[in-house]
What we know:
The protein is an alpha/beta fold.
Amino acid sequence: MENENTQGSMGSTQGGMGAAQGSIGATQGGMEPIPEGAGSIPEGTGAIPGSMEVLNSLQITEGLEGLDQASKELYKNKEVLAVILKGVVREFEGYSCREIMDFIEADSITDAEEVSPGRTNTRIVGDDKEYVALNEKLSQFDTKFRAVNPGLSGGGVVVNLHVDIEAQRTYRPGYPVEKRGIYYLARELSAQLSLVTKDTDYRCLEKCYSIWVCRDDVPKDERFSISFIEMANTRNYGKCHPAKKNYDLLSLVIIRLGDEAFRGIGDKAKNDMMEFLHAIMYPHKEDFLDIIKKHISFSDNEELWKEVEHMSGLGESILEEGRKEGRKEGRKEGRKEGMEALVDSLRFLSIPEEMIEGQLAQRYQLTSEEARSFMGRR
Protein backbone atom coordinates (compact mmCIF):
# COMPACT_ATOMS: atom_id res chain seq x y z
CA MET A 1 0.00 0.00 0.00
CA GLU A 2 1.20 3.53 -0.66
CA ASN A 3 -0.39 5.00 2.45
CA GLU A 4 0.93 3.51 5.65
CA ASN A 5 -1.04 3.87 8.85
CA THR A 6 0.24 3.05 12.29
CA GLN A 7 -2.14 3.14 15.21
CA GLY A 8 -1.03 3.20 18.85
CA SER A 9 -3.25 2.54 21.84
CA MET A 10 -3.18 1.59 25.50
CA GLY A 11 -2.91 -2.18 25.83
CA SER A 12 -3.76 -4.04 29.03
CA THR A 13 -2.33 -7.16 30.59
CA GLN A 14 -3.64 -8.37 33.91
CA GLY A 15 -1.79 -10.67 36.27
CA GLY A 16 -3.44 -12.29 39.23
CA MET A 17 -3.28 -15.65 40.99
CA GLY A 18 -0.23 -16.40 38.90
CA ALA A 19 -1.96 -16.39 35.50
CA ALA A 20 -2.01 -13.86 32.69
CA GLN A 21 -5.63 -12.98 32.03
CA GLY A 22 -5.34 -11.65 28.53
CA SER A 23 -4.41 -8.41 26.80
CA ILE A 24 -5.88 -5.76 24.57
CA GLY A 25 -3.71 -4.71 21.67
CA ALA A 26 -0.21 -5.83 20.72
CA THR A 27 2.08 -7.46 23.22
CA GLN A 28 5.05 -5.44 24.34
CA GLY A 29 7.82 -7.95 23.84
CA GLY A 30 11.04 -8.19 25.84
CA MET A 31 13.44 -5.56 27.06
CA GLU A 32 15.92 -4.11 24.64
CA PRO A 33 19.55 -5.17 25.11
CA ILE A 34 21.42 -3.42 27.89
CA PRO A 35 24.11 -1.14 26.44
CA GLU A 36 27.69 -1.65 27.51
CA GLY A 37 28.41 0.21 30.73
CA ALA A 38 24.81 0.41 31.80
CA GLY A 39 25.20 -2.21 34.51
CA SER A 40 25.22 -5.97 34.74
CA ILE A 41 22.65 -8.54 35.65
CA PRO A 42 23.38 -9.71 39.21
CA GLU A 43 24.32 -13.30 39.91
CA GLY A 44 22.26 -13.41 43.07
CA THR A 45 19.86 -11.41 45.17
CA GLY A 46 19.54 -10.72 48.85
CA ALA A 47 18.03 -8.42 51.40
CA ILE A 48 18.82 -4.73 51.00
CA PRO A 49 20.96 -3.14 53.74
CA GLY A 50 18.52 -1.00 55.70
CA SER A 51 19.14 2.63 56.69
CA MET A 52 18.15 4.44 59.87
CA GLU A 53 15.53 6.38 57.90
CA VAL A 54 13.62 3.33 56.69
CA LEU A 55 13.93 1.78 60.16
CA ASN A 56 12.21 4.81 61.66
CA SER A 57 9.61 5.02 58.88
CA LEU A 58 8.63 1.38 59.38
CA GLN A 59 8.05 1.97 63.08
CA ILE A 60 6.03 5.14 62.52
CA THR A 61 3.45 3.06 60.66
CA GLU A 62 3.15 0.33 63.32
CA GLY A 63 -0.09 1.45 64.95
CA LEU A 64 -1.52 3.30 61.99
CA GLU A 65 -4.18 2.37 59.50
CA GLY A 66 -1.61 2.10 56.77
CA LEU A 67 -2.62 5.04 54.61
CA ASP A 68 -2.22 8.31 56.48
CA GLN A 69 0.54 10.81 55.77
CA ALA A 70 3.02 9.22 58.18
CA SER A 71 2.55 5.89 56.45
CA LYS A 72 3.08 7.40 53.01
CA GLU A 73 6.49 8.60 54.19
CA LEU A 74 7.57 4.98 53.73
CA TYR A 75 7.40 5.47 49.97
CA LYS A 76 10.17 8.07 50.13
CA ASN A 77 12.73 5.43 51.10
CA LYS A 78 14.79 3.85 48.35
CA GLU A 79 14.67 0.43 50.02
CA VAL A 80 10.86 0.35 49.80
CA LEU A 81 10.80 1.76 46.27
CA ALA A 82 13.31 -0.83 45.06
CA VAL A 83 11.09 -3.70 46.21
CA ILE A 84 8.13 -2.22 44.29
CA LEU A 85 10.12 -1.45 41.14
CA LYS A 86 11.56 -4.96 41.05
CA GLY A 87 8.07 -6.40 41.21
CA VAL A 88 6.34 -4.40 38.48
CA VAL A 89 8.76 -2.36 36.33
CA ARG A 90 9.75 -4.34 33.26
CA GLU A 91 12.96 -2.37 32.78
CA PHE A 92 14.30 -3.73 36.07
CA GLU A 93 13.60 -7.39 35.44
CA GLY A 94 16.70 -9.42 36.25
CA TYR A 95 18.20 -6.80 38.53
CA SER A 96 18.57 -7.16 42.28
CA CYS A 97 16.95 -4.71 44.68
CA ARG A 98 20.43 -3.48 45.60
CA GLU A 99 21.13 -2.56 41.97
CA ILE A 100 17.72 -0.96 41.57
CA MET A 101 18.45 1.27 44.56
CA ASP A 102 21.48 2.55 42.65
CA PHE A 103 19.30 3.34 39.62
CA ILE A 104 16.97 5.51 41.74
CA GLU A 105 17.81 9.22 41.91
CA ALA A 106 20.75 9.68 44.24
CA ASP A 107 19.82 13.01 45.86
CA SER A 108 18.66 12.63 49.43
CA ILE A 109 16.80 14.63 52.06
CA THR A 110 19.16 15.54 54.88
CA ASP A 111 19.05 17.82 57.90
CA ALA A 112 21.74 20.11 59.33
CA GLU A 113 23.44 17.29 61.20
CA GLU A 114 26.20 15.28 59.61
CA VAL A 115 25.11 11.89 58.37
CA SER A 116 27.43 9.05 59.41
CA PRO A 117 28.45 6.42 56.79
CA GLY A 118 26.18 3.70 58.18
CA ARG A 119 23.20 6.03 58.22
CA THR A 120 23.26 6.92 54.56
CA ASN A 121 20.08 8.84 53.89
CA THR A 122 18.10 6.97 51.24
CA ARG A 123 14.99 9.14 51.17
CA ILE A 124 13.95 10.48 47.79
CA VAL A 125 13.95 14.04 46.60
CA GLY A 126 11.94 13.67 43.41
CA ASP A 127 10.63 15.94 40.72
CA ASP A 128 8.17 18.67 41.59
CA LYS A 129 5.19 16.86 43.11
CA GLU A 130 2.68 19.50 42.14
CA TYR A 131 1.52 20.54 38.71
CA VAL A 132 -0.26 23.86 38.97
CA ALA A 133 -1.58 26.18 36.27
CA LEU A 134 -3.71 29.29 36.47
CA ASN A 135 -7.25 28.46 37.62
CA GLU A 136 -6.36 24.76 37.77
CA LYS A 137 -7.18 22.57 40.77
CA LEU A 138 -4.08 21.48 42.66
CA SER A 139 -3.05 17.87 41.95
CA GLN A 140 -0.37 16.35 44.10
CA PHE A 141 1.58 13.16 43.60
CA ASP A 142 2.17 10.90 46.58
CA THR A 143 5.73 9.98 45.60
CA LYS A 144 7.38 11.01 42.35
CA PHE A 145 10.99 10.37 41.40
CA ARG A 146 13.37 9.47 38.60
CA ALA A 147 15.31 6.27 38.05
CA VAL A 148 17.84 5.36 35.37
CA ASN A 149 16.42 3.27 32.54
CA PRO A 150 19.16 0.60 32.24
CA GLY A 151 17.93 -0.67 28.88
CA LEU A 152 18.37 2.69 27.14
CA SER A 153 21.31 4.15 29.07
CA GLY A 154 24.98 3.61 28.35
CA GLY A 155 27.97 5.10 26.63
CA GLY A 156 27.74 8.25 28.71
CA VAL A 157 24.05 8.74 27.91
CA VAL A 158 21.53 8.54 30.77
CA VAL A 159 17.85 7.99 30.02
CA ASN A 160 15.46 8.16 32.96
CA LEU A 161 12.18 6.60 33.96
CA HIS A 162 9.73 9.00 35.64
CA VAL A 163 7.84 7.12 38.36
CA ASP A 164 4.81 8.07 40.42
CA ILE A 165 3.61 5.78 43.23
CA GLU A 166 0.11 6.30 44.67
CA ALA A 167 -1.07 4.51 47.81
CA GLN A 168 -4.87 4.43 47.82
CA ARG A 169 -7.22 3.38 50.58
CA THR A 170 -10.01 2.43 48.18
CA TYR A 171 -10.13 0.92 44.71
CA ARG A 172 -13.59 2.47 44.23
CA PRO A 173 -13.28 6.20 45.02
CA GLY A 174 -16.32 7.11 42.87
CA TYR A 175 -14.48 7.02 39.54
CA PRO A 176 -12.27 4.48 37.73
CA VAL A 177 -8.79 4.52 39.23
CA GLU A 178 -7.49 3.53 35.79
CA LYS A 179 -8.69 6.80 34.24
CA ARG A 180 -7.10 8.87 36.98
CA GLY A 181 -3.86 6.94 36.52
CA ILE A 182 -3.82 7.64 32.78
CA TYR A 183 -4.44 11.33 33.50
CA TYR A 184 -1.50 11.38 35.90
CA LEU A 185 0.68 9.71 33.27
CA ALA A 186 -0.29 12.33 30.70
CA ARG A 187 0.70 15.08 33.10
CA GLU A 188 3.97 13.36 33.92
CA LEU A 189 4.84 13.15 30.24
CA SER A 190 3.79 16.67 29.28
CA ALA A 191 5.62 18.16 32.28
CA GLN A 192 8.93 17.03 30.76
CA LEU A 193 8.56 19.80 28.19
CA SER A 194 8.34 23.40 29.25
CA LEU A 195 7.07 25.79 26.56
CA VAL A 196 6.25 23.96 23.34
CA THR A 197 7.47 25.78 20.23
CA LYS A 198 8.29 24.86 16.65
CA ASP A 199 11.78 23.99 17.87
CA THR A 200 10.67 21.62 20.64
CA ASP A 201 12.68 18.40 20.54
CA TYR A 202 10.27 15.58 21.34
CA ARG A 203 13.14 13.09 21.31
CA CYS A 204 13.89 14.06 24.90
CA LEU A 205 10.61 12.62 26.21
CA GLU A 206 11.22 9.76 28.64
CA LYS A 207 9.00 6.90 29.78
CA CYS A 208 6.59 7.40 32.69
CA TYR A 209 5.22 4.90 35.19
CA SER A 210 2.23 5.45 37.45
CA ILE A 211 1.92 2.69 40.07
CA TRP A 212 -1.27 2.54 42.14
CA VAL A 213 -1.49 0.38 45.26
CA CYS A 214 -5.18 -0.02 46.22
CA ARG A 215 -5.98 -1.55 49.59
CA ASP A 216 -9.73 -1.67 50.23
CA ASP A 217 -13.01 -2.13 48.35
CA VAL A 218 -11.55 -4.55 45.81
CA PRO A 219 -14.07 -7.01 44.30
CA LYS A 220 -13.52 -10.46 45.77
CA ASP A 221 -12.44 -12.08 42.51
CA GLU A 222 -9.95 -9.26 41.81
CA ARG A 223 -8.18 -9.30 45.17
CA PHE A 224 -4.41 -9.74 45.07
CA SER A 225 -4.09 -9.02 41.37
CA ILE A 226 -2.02 -6.69 39.20
CA SER A 227 -2.91 -5.01 35.89
CA PHE A 228 -0.39 -3.51 33.45
CA ILE A 229 -1.81 -0.97 31.01
CA GLU A 230 0.71 0.24 28.43
CA MET A 231 1.10 1.90 25.07
CA ALA A 232 1.01 -0.63 22.25
CA ASN A 233 1.29 -0.58 18.47
CA THR A 234 -1.89 -2.53 17.69
CA ARG A 235 -1.86 -2.59 13.88
CA ASN A 236 0.17 -1.51 10.84
CA TYR A 237 -0.76 -1.20 7.15
CA GLY A 238 2.05 -1.40 4.65
CA LYS A 239 5.75 -1.80 5.30
CA CYS A 240 6.18 0.13 8.53
CA HIS A 241 7.78 -0.92 11.77
CA PRO A 242 7.58 1.80 14.45
CA ALA A 243 10.40 1.53 16.98
CA LYS A 244 9.00 0.53 20.34
CA LYS A 245 11.22 3.01 22.19
CA ASN A 246 9.44 5.85 20.38
CA TYR A 247 5.96 5.03 21.68
CA ASP A 248 6.54 2.94 24.81
CA LEU A 249 6.24 6.03 27.03
CA LEU A 250 3.28 5.40 29.35
CA SER A 251 2.81 2.47 31.71
CA LEU A 252 0.04 2.26 34.32
CA VAL A 253 0.24 -0.43 37.01
CA ILE A 254 -2.73 -1.16 39.27
CA ILE A 255 -1.92 -3.32 42.31
CA ARG A 256 -4.99 -4.58 44.18
CA LEU A 257 -4.78 -5.95 47.70
CA GLY A 258 -8.23 -6.16 49.28
CA ASP A 259 -8.06 -8.29 52.43
CA GLU A 260 -6.21 -8.25 55.75
CA ALA A 261 -5.41 -11.94 55.23
CA PHE A 262 -2.72 -12.20 52.56
CA ARG A 263 -3.36 -14.54 49.64
CA GLY A 264 -0.35 -15.37 47.51
CA ILE A 265 -0.08 -15.36 43.74
CA GLY A 266 1.91 -17.69 41.52
CA ASP A 267 4.63 -15.38 40.20
CA LYS A 268 7.38 -15.34 42.85
CA ALA A 269 8.75 -11.84 42.20
CA LYS A 270 5.30 -10.31 42.18
CA ASN A 271 4.16 -12.41 45.13
CA ASP A 272 7.13 -11.22 47.21
CA MET A 273 6.33 -7.60 46.37
CA MET A 274 2.61 -8.07 47.13
CA GLU A 275 3.42 -9.68 50.48
CA PHE A 276 5.72 -6.76 51.33
CA LEU A 277 3.11 -4.16 50.36
CA HIS A 278 0.44 -6.05 52.30
CA ALA A 279 2.63 -5.94 55.41
CA ILE A 280 3.19 -2.17 55.27
CA MET A 281 -0.29 -1.18 54.02
CA TYR A 282 -2.18 -2.79 56.89
CA PRO A 283 -1.65 -2.40 60.66
CA HIS A 284 1.40 -4.48 61.59
CA LYS A 285 0.81 -8.15 62.39
CA GLU A 286 2.92 -10.65 64.29
CA ASP A 287 4.82 -11.70 61.16
CA PHE A 288 5.63 -8.10 60.14
CA LEU A 289 9.35 -8.28 60.94
CA ASP A 290 9.67 -11.71 59.31
CA ILE A 291 8.30 -10.31 56.05
CA ILE A 292 10.37 -7.13 56.17
CA LYS A 293 13.58 -9.09 56.81
CA LYS A 294 13.11 -10.95 53.53
CA HIS A 295 13.72 -7.64 51.75
CA ILE A 296 15.48 -5.25 54.14
CA SER A 297 18.20 -6.28 56.60
CA PHE A 298 19.62 -4.08 59.33
CA SER A 299 22.18 -6.56 60.66
CA ASP A 300 25.03 -5.41 58.35
CA ASN A 301 24.76 -1.73 59.25
CA GLU A 302 27.57 -1.50 61.81
CA GLU A 303 27.31 2.27 62.21
CA LEU A 304 23.60 1.97 62.96
CA TRP A 305 24.16 -0.51 65.77
CA LYS A 306 26.97 1.59 67.24
CA GLU A 307 24.25 4.18 67.77
CA VAL A 308 21.87 1.75 69.43
CA GLU A 309 21.79 4.00 72.52
CA HIS A 310 20.22 6.79 70.45
CA MET A 311 17.77 4.69 68.49
CA SER A 312 14.30 5.83 67.70
CA GLY A 313 11.59 4.25 65.60
CA LEU A 314 11.58 0.50 65.02
CA GLY A 315 14.91 -0.04 66.75
CA GLU A 316 13.64 1.65 69.90
CA SER A 317 10.37 -0.24 69.59
CA ILE A 318 12.22 -3.55 69.48
CA LEU A 319 14.16 -2.59 72.58
CA GLU A 320 10.95 -1.40 74.17
CA GLU A 321 9.43 -4.83 73.72
CA GLY A 322 12.07 -6.11 76.07
CA ARG A 323 11.49 -3.37 78.64
CA LYS A 324 7.71 -3.49 78.90
CA GLU A 325 7.49 -6.38 81.31
CA GLY A 326 10.49 -5.25 83.32
CA ARG A 327 8.77 -1.96 84.12
CA LYS A 328 6.13 -3.72 86.19
CA GLU A 329 7.46 -3.06 89.68
CA GLY A 330 7.62 -5.92 92.15
CA ARG A 331 7.22 -8.59 89.50
CA LYS A 332 10.37 -10.65 89.31
CA GLU A 333 8.81 -12.85 86.67
CA GLY A 334 7.94 -9.82 84.58
CA ARG A 335 11.54 -8.60 84.76
CA LYS A 336 12.77 -12.00 83.55
CA GLU A 337 10.28 -11.96 80.68
CA GLY A 338 11.43 -8.49 79.73
CA MET A 339 15.06 -9.55 79.68
CA GLU A 340 14.20 -12.58 77.57
CA ALA A 341 12.21 -10.48 75.11
CA LEU A 342 15.08 -8.00 74.77
CA VAL A 343 17.63 -10.72 74.03
CA ASP A 344 15.31 -12.52 71.59
CA SER A 345 14.40 -9.30 69.75
CA LEU A 346 18.00 -8.22 69.23
CA ARG A 347 19.08 -11.71 68.19
CA PHE A 348 16.21 -11.70 65.71
CA LEU A 349 17.86 -8.70 64.03
CA SER A 350 21.28 -10.42 64.10
CA ILE A 351 22.79 -7.91 66.54
CA PRO A 352 26.29 -8.98 67.74
CA GLU A 353 26.25 -10.85 71.07
CA GLU A 354 28.59 -8.39 72.77
CA MET A 355 26.25 -5.50 71.93
CA ILE A 356 23.25 -7.44 73.25
CA GLU A 357 25.19 -8.11 76.43
CA GLY A 358 25.89 -4.40 76.84
CA GLN A 359 22.25 -3.46 76.29
CA LEU A 360 21.04 -6.10 78.74
CA ALA A 361 23.49 -4.98 81.42
CA GLN A 362 22.64 -1.30 81.04
CA ARG A 363 18.87 -1.58 80.89
CA TYR A 364 18.53 -4.03 83.77
CA GLN A 365 21.45 -2.84 85.92
CA LEU A 366 23.40 -6.08 85.59
CA THR A 367 27.10 -6.74 85.69
CA SER A 368 28.72 -8.00 82.52
CA GLU A 369 29.04 -11.45 84.10
CA GLU A 370 25.35 -11.50 85.08
CA ALA A 371 24.28 -10.44 81.59
CA ARG A 372 26.56 -13.02 79.95
CA SER A 373 25.28 -15.73 82.26
CA PHE A 374 21.64 -14.87 81.51
CA MET A 375 22.30 -14.90 77.75
CA GLY A 376 23.98 -18.28 78.05
CA ARG A 377 20.74 -19.72 79.42
CA ARG A 378 18.68 -18.40 76.45
